[in-house]
Each structure stands twice: as structure tokens, then as C-alpha cells.
From TrEMBL:
Record-linked InterPro entries: FecR, FecR_C, Ferrdict_sens_TM
Keywords of this entry: Membrane, Transmembrane, Transmembrane helix
GO molecular function: sigma factor antagonist activity
Transmembrane segments: 82-102
Record's keyword annotation contains Transmembrane helix: yes
Organism expressing this protein natively: Dinghuibacter silviterrae
Domain FecR protein: 115-209
Protein FecR C-terminal domain location: 268-336
Protein name: FecR family protein
Gene3D superfamilies hit by this protein: 2.60.120.1440, 3.55.50.30
Signal peptide (residue range): none
Amino acid sequence: MENSRIIELLAKKLGKSATPDELQELGRLLGEHPEYSYLEEVVQSLKGSREHVELHLPAQEVTDMGWKHLAGRLNEPKVRRLWPRWVAAAMVLLMAGAAWLFQVRKSPVQASKSVNVGYGARRMLTLSDGTRIWLNAGSRLIYPERFTGSKREVTVEGEAFFDVAPQASMPFLVHAGKLTIKVLGTSFDVKDYKEDADITTTLISGKVEVMMDNNPERDVILEPREKLVVAKVDTALKSDQPQVRYQVRSVMTGVKNNIAETAWINNKLVFNDDTFEEVARQLERKYNVQVNIADEGLKDEHVSGVFDKETLQQVLDILRATTRFDYRVEGQKIVIWKN
């Protein structure tokens, strides 16, 4: 008789008419008869439990299995022992659950993957569509295992260089902070470190459209060798009308035809009249150190130079030849002050 009682209590649970005592009784009976636990799992999945969804079962198999447990496997030849409205409720839930599972299997949710690159490192990877991406130090990329639908979308934190595989029917979208860069097939760099004041997009070849989340009517089209610089802090003409500060600049070619914005791909550092504060941040990422500038006035000094295989100490010594400062090394910490 206990099997009939289990079915009765499960039916009440389905119909949301079970009392707390009956739910407690159901838990006790299922504990004493673990062979019936699977039936409760089926019930939970059909009620939409987030903890148990049988995604691998075909829709018809879910329906058949549910009724098999209700009428066959539990040796109850007549399901009519259940109250009629419970049977109706159970049937509706079974059919709805089967249809829902079938729909889920037709439109699977794409699993997202992420790659994190620490300071002092770089990484290159190829996505499922053939797009190649170089990640700079201190960066993160979030992307789907495979691209489906009408567009390809990824998210970048930090800095990345993209060589996008052409696919006109499926545009490539890169989300970086409050910017979205739309491309069809091109190569460009995007930089959005949390500690930086600006988000930059530098186009090397092709064409990109940059959309600003809080200023959608002001999309910017970049041509090759152009760079978009967007301030992270909005200014405002009026309190209810934020005005995004942005500027399109030409990309300058430095010493030995090096482009500062993409030199990191080849493990180089290129400074073109950069502030010492910006130089310090780049040194932190490349050499995995912490740089403290003790003199505020030194932060606004401007420096230039190209560095390839130099050690951190060599870089600092070369910079010191044109900018007056001293430094000391304390493990992974560099303290710099003006002399």
C-alpha cells in the first residue's frame, strides 16, 4: 500500500495541495523506498527545478517514462486510484515538460569559455570561426565554444588584438566596457584596462563600426590607421544629458616603423611621448611588478623609446638617461622618485 501512498503524495505535490505534514511523510517514504526516488526526480524536472533537468532525454521518452513509472513500473495497473484532477494536472505537467525539454534540445544554450592572462604573460588563441586573438598581460576574454545564430560575440577586459575571419553573413562583435566594436573581417586592437582613464580602439586594416552604449546615435566608423579614444568618465552639459568625450586620432608610426598600440604582440614596448604614469602601468603588466611613483610631478613627465628584449632594470636605466629619476627594487615592487 505504501507505493499507492507515494503516488498519492506525489500527485498532491504536483497539484500544490500537499500539506507540510504530507510533504514530510513523502520525504520519509522516499527515504525508506529509494527505488521510488527517480519518480520524484521526474516530478521535480517537470516542475521546472533548476537543480535537475534531464537535457539528454528525448521529449517522447520523458513522457513515456513518466507514465511507465506511474502505471507500469510501480505495479499499479490502474492509475485511476489517483484523484481525477491530480491525474489531469500530472498529464498537463508531463506533456508541458516534455515539450519544453524538446524545445531546449532544439535550441541548446551555448556554453561560454574564458581565458585569463596574468601579468608578465601573453597568449594567442584561435576561435572556432578561425579568428585569431592575441591577449596582452592582465587581460580576459569571454567567448562561446562555437558561434551560432546571426552574429559572433566576445567580451574583452584588458587588451586584445583581433585578426577576424571574414564572414559577411555573421558580423563579429567585441564588447569592451561601454563600447561595442562591429566588424566583418579586419584586424584591430582594443584596450580597456580598469585602471586606464580611456578605452581605445585602433584599426590596422579593414573597417570597424564602434558603438557607444550610452550614446547609441553617435557610432564612429574607423578607417585603417585610425584610433578612437573614449573617456570612461562622462561629462555633462546638463545633469540629465551625459556627453561622451571621444576623439579619433591618426595612428603614429614610431621608431623603426613600430606602432605603439600593437607592439606588445611582438613582445615590444613602444612609448611615443607617453606620460611616465602610463609607462609605469605598461611596465607593471609586462614584467609582473608593482611600480610606485613617489613624486606626483614625475607622473606627468613624457618619455619615448622602443624596447624589445631588455630586462626591467635595463629599461629603467635607459629611461633614466632622458628623465631625471632614481629607483630602488624591493622584490616585485619598484619605487621611483624624481631626483
